[in-house]
Amino acid sequence: MTKTDDHFFNKVYDVARMVPYGRVTTYGAIAKFIGSPQAARMVGWAMNKSFSQKEFVPAHRVVNRNGMLTGKHHFGTSDAMEQLLKNEGIIVIDDAIINFKKHFWDPANLID
Q: Is there a domain that residue 109 lies in?
């Protein structure tokens, strides 16, 4: 990983750590917030690497733009991401968050 990637990933982790308990955001919303709106896929790569961070990154709260758990295969078991979300009161059926708009948290709302 390059120094540039490292800096980008750290920005992603900072935003992911801001996602409130019981809420989710998207790869694209994080990318847009940190000034790289075309880098949603790279945000996904950062989430994949988040488990190596010393400080916890709630990667389970970052999903795709449709509320799908597309990153679930990067967790320890096939249902770990879903279980973490369910523990926070989020209903998931067939890898999709039910009432996604209700649970969506947009980091852009931090900017006044």
A: no
Q: What is the domain extent for residue 19?
A: 3-104
Q: What's the number of domains the chain is made of?
A: 1
First to last CA, the chain: 34
CATH number at residue 8: 1.10.10.10
pLDDT tens string 9-34: 999 999 999 999 999 999 999 999 99
Which are the contacts of 1, defined by CB distance < 8 A and separation ≥ 6?
Answer: 9, 49
- Here the contacts of 49-54 (C-beta below 8 Å, separation 24 or greater) are 49/1, 49/9, 50/13, 50/16, 53/13
